[in-house]
Structure to design on (286 residues):
């Protein structure tokens, strides 16, 4: 269609020029000139047709390339859409895992807080037990009281400061209780310095009857004493009774000898005032 319009335009122009020239020039010359113009116009038309063909070819190539690009774009878009869907699924799965992990973490934190609260409660209970044990130690006969008190106070300080774990506190408190139970149950003979009622320090054999009583005889066998308990200002107090009768001194001496294994095992009657526990002492002092 484009070629026909171009050819008609050239022919119209040639006829117009031919008519104009024919009026002024010789017919033979005009005919030759027209032939030359027609030949030139044919070449121009051929060149134009060739240009049009090249243009059409380029257009087809561009259209083919555009179609390929469009097809490639569509394939890329489909691939990206699939990748985006897969990515969204992975994101949803990851979010679900994160939510589940956060839920577990909250449960763990709740358990931790519950354990901390339980530990605080246990430490408070242990502190109460240590206070009760301290009262009993101070109300018991004066046997290594400072050492026993310091151990309990050391445990109390750690409990109140929170530097001792419940497990450690339980172990230490259990050891203290076992030691106090042993100290309260055992009947043992000791040779050690002793402060008499008048403040004099003598080397003596001491028979300790649990937390109930103590008797002593000095190394020369001349001075004797029985530890007796009384109440002062509603508190337990102990003092050595050293004005023993002849029979009481002999009984003390025999008891020490039997415990030391120098006499056959036998029952030895002693004149003792048995100690009361802290609760009984407090009631008796009221």
């Amino acid at each position: 269609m484009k070629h026909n319009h171009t050819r008609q335009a050239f022919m119209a122009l040639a006829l117009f020029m031919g008519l104009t020239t024919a009026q002024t020039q010789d017919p033979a010359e005009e005919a030759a000139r027209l032939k030359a113009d027609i030949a030139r116009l044919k070449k121009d038309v051929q060149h134009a047709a060739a240009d049009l063909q090249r243009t059409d070819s380029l257009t087809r190539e561009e259209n083919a390339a555009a179609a390929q690009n469009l097809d490639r774009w569509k394939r890329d878009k489909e691939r990206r859409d699939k990748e985006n869907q897969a990515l969204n699924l992975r994101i949803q799965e990851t979010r679900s895992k994160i939510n589940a992990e956060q839920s577990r973490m909250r449960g763990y934190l709740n358990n931790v807080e519950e354990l901390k609260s339980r530990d605080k409660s246990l430490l408070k209970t242990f502190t109460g037990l240590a206070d009760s044990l301290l009262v009993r130690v101070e109300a018991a006969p004066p046997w290594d009281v400072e050492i026993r008190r310091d151990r309990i106070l050391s445990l109390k300080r750690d409990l109140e400061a929170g530097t001792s774990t419940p497990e450690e506190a339980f172990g230490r408190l259990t050891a203290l209780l076992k030691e106090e139970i042993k100290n309260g149950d055992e009947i043992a003979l000791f040779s050690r310095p002793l402060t008499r009622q008048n403040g004099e320090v003598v080397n003596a054999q001491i028979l300790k009857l649990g937390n109930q009583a103590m008797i002593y005889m000095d190394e020369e066998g001349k001075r004797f004493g029985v530890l007796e308990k009384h109440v002062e200002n509603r508190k337990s107090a102990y003092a050595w009774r050293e004005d023993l009768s002849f029979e009481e001194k002999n009984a003390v001496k025999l008891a020490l000898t039997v415990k030391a294994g120098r006499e056959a095992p036998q029952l030895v009657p002693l004149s003792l005032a048995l100690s009361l526990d802290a609760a009984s002492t407090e009631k008796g002092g009221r």
